[in-house]
Amino acid sequence: MGQGKKATAVIGGGTMGADIVLVLARAGCATYLVEPDAKRRGEVEGYLRVGLAEMERPRQYARIALHPTLAALPWGDIEVVIEAIPEKLELKRAVFADLERLSRPDAFLTSNSSSFPISDIGVGLSTRERMFGLHFFMPAHLVPLVEVVCSSASDPARADALMAFMLAVGKVPVKVRKDLPGFLANRLQHALAREAFALIDAGVASPDDVDAAVRFGFGFRFLAAGPILQKEHAGLDVHHLAATTIYPSLATNTEPARVLREHVATGRLGMKTGRGFYEWTPEALTAERARYNALLRAGLKVLESELPPVDPD
Hints:
By secondary structure, the protein is α/β, with parallel strands linked by helices.
């Protein structure tokens, strides 16, 4: 499988699944979405129409077909399958067993799971060489990155082909050669979060100041260069000297920070409960989501010359 338009299937019509459909349909792929719940299918239909209009690809909605069951799909045509169902391992294993049985032998079977390695999901199945993690980031249609995660059974040539396909649909793929917990990006993100919450625990900084330090300090530079390239700009000797001083005092806790545990225990989960470190009234929630998505779209414009082109025709 190289570049070009592929027939694809997305299993699960939740937030991630719907946004992955937007990615594929925008690029001109015939895209079949499986969502068993009739009410959710109706909601997703409207969401996809609006999403493609916002992406200036309204005609691409004709590329999408919604189905209630796996059995309804034209499996002889489908070349790439992306599972995006709830994070329950046994449920995912059952779906992959069905996918192995239903799909054509050369189809890619992938999971968007952020929790379970593809080696755990595909355990006991006979065609694990074609199974990969394919981990998108919320919101999947706005965040360019996607991780192609290999297990020890994954075929390296197939991994390269999947990378090429992701480039063809406008994503920036990275290959994760070992399916460690958290893969690549989430491991980096959690390393930062561990230190951030530890600093709040220790009374060094407030949540607002932690957020500002990342957004308007070193995080601002990440739009132009990742952490390795940025140190090339600054000088590896400078980084080495700073690391020698700072590393001994960095957080090394092996469980979540006290302040994080307390928030979870008391139901202060963030936007989903109306309160986390910040307060979320319905009005504040609507405004924040609009602000957040607008800035992501602006970031895409800034990076436009460095992103893979998408030709939907």
